[in-house]
Amino acid sequence: MTDAFSIHRRGALASIAALIGATALPLEALAAPKKKAKGKPATKKFFSPSQMALVTALADTLIPATDTPGAVFTKAPQQLESLMVNWASPATKAQILGALPAIEKMALDADKKPFAALTPARRKELLIAYDKAALKTVPRKEKLMGLAAMLAGPAVADPAYAKLKDLIVTLYYTSEVAMTQEVIYEHVPGPFVPSLKITPQTRPFAGVGGLG
């Protein structure tokens, strides 16, 4: 495991803990899911088979495999389930489960098929419009002041979907694959360069303690 991945993972724990309503998470919370050993009880599940199929299809649509592996390869759906089982608050668990029916309904209304049964191209087409509507900013119902208002960020039409998407994306970008193939990590930055030439092969830089 690379130093870049370890450092980035530590920095991301606070963000994930906030998203799932936990006060703290150990580093093991982002470890790759382990295979069940023979003779041991099965790992507790949070999603039903159909829900896991939907979450997996959503993850694959949000971050598909291209010239680098996607979210499914990094087991982001399984890590999400593990976080829901072991660390998420009851409110977050209900929120994540509540986000799934609307996505499924969107696919059924459009094509009379579950979201997971659609082709990748069709899933992307439907999700682009759905994502835009779900993440549209709306007036905040509660009154927040000062630092709380700054940290809360803008209110969106579907906060449950926003949290589900945030978790999938964050789990992907805390994976070793993303840290070594998607972004660049510089432990000791070099000299200041005021302008960098950007090419199709340029990878973004990862910051220590956050997503680059």
Give a description of the structure.
There is one protein chain. It contains eight helices and no strands. It is 51% helix and 0% strand. The chain has 212 residues and is mainly α. It has helices at residues 3-20, 49-62, 76-86, 90-111, 120-134, 146-152, 159-173, 176-182. Residues 1-7 and 208-212 have low confidence and may be disordered. Helix 1 packs antiparallel against helix 7 and helix 4 (90-111) crosses helix 7 (159-173).
Gap from first CA to last CA: 19 Å
The biggest sheet, with number of strands, parallel, antiparallel or mixed sense and barrel status, is: none
Contiguous runs where pLDDT drops below 50 for at least 5 residues: 1-7, 208-212
The number of distinct β-strands equals: 0
Approximate shape? globular
What's the number of helices? Answer: 8
Q: In percent, how helical is the residue content?
A: 40-55%
Structural class computed from helices and strand pairing: mainly alpha
Radius of gyration over C-alpha positions, nearest whole angstrom? 18 Å
Mean pLDDT: 82
Strand content: under 5%
Q: Write the H/E string, N to C.
A: HHHHHHHH
